[in-house]
Each structure stands twice: as structure tokens, then as C-alpha cells.
Amino acid sequence: MLKIEKIDHLYDRNLLYLIYTVLLCVILILLLNVTEELTHNILSKDTYEILHFFSDLLSIFVSFSVFAVLYYTYEEFNSLRNIILSQAFLITGILEVFYLFFYKEIFSFTPKDALQYEILFWLLSRLIMTSGIFTTSIIEKRKKVYIKKEVFLFSSLVITSIFLLITSFTFSYIPQLVNVGQGPTIYSLLIEYLIISLLLIASFTYIKEYFLYKNKLICIFVIALILGVFTEVSYTLFSNLYDIYIIIAHFFKVLSYYVIFHTLFLANIKMPYRKLENMKNKVDDYAHNLEDLVNEKTEKLVKANLRLQNVNKKMIADIEAAKSIQQALLPNKSVKYKGVSFYSEYIPCERLSGDFFNYFKIDEENIAAYIVDVSGHGLSAAMLTIFLDRSLRIKEGYYGGKYSILEPKEVLTILYEVFNNSNFPDETHIVMIYGIYNIRTKTFKYSSAGHNCPLIKISENNGVEILDENRGFPICKLGKFYKPTYKNYEINLNKNDKLLFFTDGLTELKNREIYTLEKLLHLLKNNKNLDSEELIKLISKDLFKYKNPNFLEDDITFFIMESTL
What we know:
- By secondary structure, the chain is an alpha+beta fold.
- It has two domains: 8-272, Rhopdopsin 7-helix transmembrane proteins (Up-down Bundle); 335-563, PPM-type phosphatase domain (Phosphatase 2c, domain 1, 4-Layer Sandwich).
- The protein has helices spanning 11-42, 45-72, 74-77, 80-101, 114-137, 149-170, 186-213, 216-237, 244-329, 378-391, 408-420, 504-507, 517-526, 532-546, and strands spanning 178-179, 183-184, 334-337, 340-347, 355-361, 366-374, 396-399, 402-405, 429-438, 443-449, 455-459, 463-467, 475-476, 489-492, 498-502, 556-563.
- A six-stranded antiparallel sheet has the order 3-4-16-15-11-12.
- Residues 276-314 form a coiled coil.
């Protein structure tokens, strides 16, 4: 609601103003208590009625003014506090109009229960306004909302109509709110105590905000709330309709509304325009000296730019060379072996990627496949993927006096040890899945090193299944402290069964919302009968209807392994 600015040098002074306000209000109440009989004799009944009437008119005018300021500046700030407070004052203003119409000393057409109506509308209007202020105090100050302001306006008018209808149909059931010659009843007092409590809580909440930001406008707003508290205190003290406490309650109310209007006008109109004017003046000042400054700086910038261009060209050439090396290590988009085929999509968010994948023949029966996500992007991540490609080409180990194919868990264990013996930075880490497909047995055995994206099995008969086993421990520089134990998992693949490998760049793609795993699964379930190539193209098409591929925050890598026997 309030535009926050830090004004450190006014900190103590503003607190003093707040204390002075409380003291002055208390003193005024005490003076009225002492001079009540004197003022009653001095002020005539007609004077009371005129003061009463015009103070209510002022309240209505200021209420609608507060509404107008906040409502018509809503689209500039989209502040949830502002729009809620604007609607609270709109409803308050409307109810106060009805309150005024039931003032029988002014209008002759009022019903016989006009006094009960008058007090009811006073309490309702004060309760609505206070509830709005209390609500804004518990809303985070920078909270924004992008609903059209007309929706709030319509809702407020509906709420007001409901209030009026309920009041009309249930009026006879409402307990007596005031006794002529005695003052408010216990029911009125309970509502007043509720209003006072809400105002005090809101005041303390805004004072906490003031201590945090030391903004003068927050303190002024709290002063308005304190005046509102004394409005209700004065109301609880009156004993008859021509009591000085009624007049002072209206005085406090008008003053409170005006201070709120003044604060919000400064925060939402005057101060922004004043800042704009100051910025314009600064721009004008800079413009007078701009030409000489530009000429002086341009010469320096031209020289510096030439040097930067030369350095940049060399860096781009080096990066392009590294890109060529990295992409040369990637498999073709479509690769077919006996019994199994692969189709892939690879979209780096920069020239060089931290994602990597590959598949290769170990022997005539076994095909290895893996996908890797290295922390970070750019040159360092790309160089690490080259290291991984070399390291993951290990095919055999010597066990029991003979050579045998290394199982996936053994490959990851060796990679963990090799990585920890290297000189890569300590903050670097790798997550991956490595697996081996046996063409004869049609089993895919795999192991995970902390990969946060599960394999997805796609079957024409059995649908889509997430293989979300233990994800294992990432490859990282913790070898001195921890030796992970990697596990193997197996899955059988029938003819045309597919496995989707992917990195988190696919399911964490952001636009206004995230392209989630649920969206991906829904797409796969509806298109499970497509072959690998068609399915990869469909995923890409769906993905880039959602996000421009030229503006990615992370690398996107995915491929499908399909059993063809």
C-alpha cells in the first residue's frame, strides 16, 4: 500500500509525532470529560446537528477520495494492499451515505427506527473500514495482484448490496444498539471494542514495518489509525445524541480519514510524480554537458572496444573449437544396432553444454547407453563431458582370472574413484545414469549416480511407467570422506518397448509455469504407439510451443532407446 523508502534521519522525529498524537488525544478526551456540562450549555441542539451533518458529509467525501486515489492508481502498482483498502473505503462511503439518510434531525422521511438504523450503519461502516485496514496490515507490502480492478469493484458492490439486503430483512432481529438518554448498549460496545482491537493490532503491525523501513509515510499512516482508535473510544463514552463525545468522535473520524487520504495521495501520486520530475531535471542537467562527455568517452570506448573485439573473437574461436570437439563426441541423431535403436534431441542453452549422452557397442550382444548432467554450463562443463566420454568407454574388467564386461555399478564406482583422483574443482559434481542392454536376453541393466530424472518406460501394451529406483550418490569430490555403493537395476524390454532418458532441463523448463514431469507423462501416455523418431519430434514440438529455444535457462537433452526385436 505504501511505497517504501528509507528515511533514516526522520526516524526519531516520526516516533515523537506518534507519541504526541496519542498524548493530545488523551488530553482532549480528559478536557471534554471535565468541561462536558459547559460545552453542552454553550452548544445548541441546532449546532450539534449542523456539526454532525457536515462532519458526515466530509467523511463520505474523503472515503470516496481514498477509494478514487487507490482504485485509479491500481494499474500502476498492482498492489494488493491498495486495492483491498480502496474497496474497504468504497463500501464504507456507501454505508455512510445510508447512515446520513437515516439522520432524522436532517431528513423528515426517515422511518421510526431511524436511530437504530443510524447506529447500525455507523457500526457497519466503521467495521468494514477497520477490517480493510487490518487485512492490509497482514499482507506483505510488496504483494502484487494482476486481477482487473473492475472485478474488485463489482465484488464490492455485490458485498454492499448483500449487506443492505441482510440489514433490511433481518432488521427486526438485530438487538437494540443504543438507548436514548443512556448511550450505546452492550452490543454496540462489543462491536466498538472489536474495532478498537483491530485498529490497535494493525497499528502495531505497521509500527513494526516502520522500524524495518523507517519510512515517514508509514508513521503518518499509524497516526491515522490512532485517531481511528480515539474515534471509537469517544463513541463508547456518549450518553445522549447531543453529547459532545459524538461530535469529537466525528472530528477524530474525519481527521483520521483525511490523514489516510493525505498519506496515500503522497505515496501513490505526489511522490512518484515528484521523483519523475527530479529525474527529468537530472536528465536536463546531464544533457547540457552530454556532448562533451560523449566525445571524450567515445574515443576511449572505441579503443577499448577494438581490444575487446579482438579478445572476444579469440574466445569465440576457442569456444567454437571446443563446441566442435564436444559435438563430435555425440552420437548421430538416429542410431540403429541389431535389436535396438536410438533417437535423440540435444539443445544446449549456450554454445557449450553441461549435458552429454552416448551409446556404443560393447560387443555383439551388449550395447551401453548413458546420460550425464554436469553442474554448470559453458567451457568448464563441456571439458568435463569430454573427460567423461573417455572414462566411460571402459568395457571390461579382470575378475577371477578372466576378463568380463563391467556391470553398470562397477563403471560408476570406477568413475567415482577416477574423478576423485583428478584435479577438477571441488564444487564440480556429476549426476548420471549408465546402463547396458543385452540384445539376447532383452534386459537393460542400469545404475544411477544421483540422476534426478527417472527413466520412463513406454510400452504399447502396459502404458507408461516411471522407473524411480534409488538414485544413488552423485559423482563428486568427497572420496576422502565417503565411498558410495552403487546398485544395479534390471528391466525387461519387449519388442517396441522404449526407454526415455532425459535431464532436468526438459521437466524444469520455465515460462509462466514449469513444463513438469506430469505434462511429459500425459504426452507419452497419449502417444505411446509412436516410434522413437516420431515421439522425440512430438516432445520437441510440444516443448517449443511452450518455450522459445533461443531463450533457455538450462540445457535440454533427451533420447529414446527402443527394442526392435
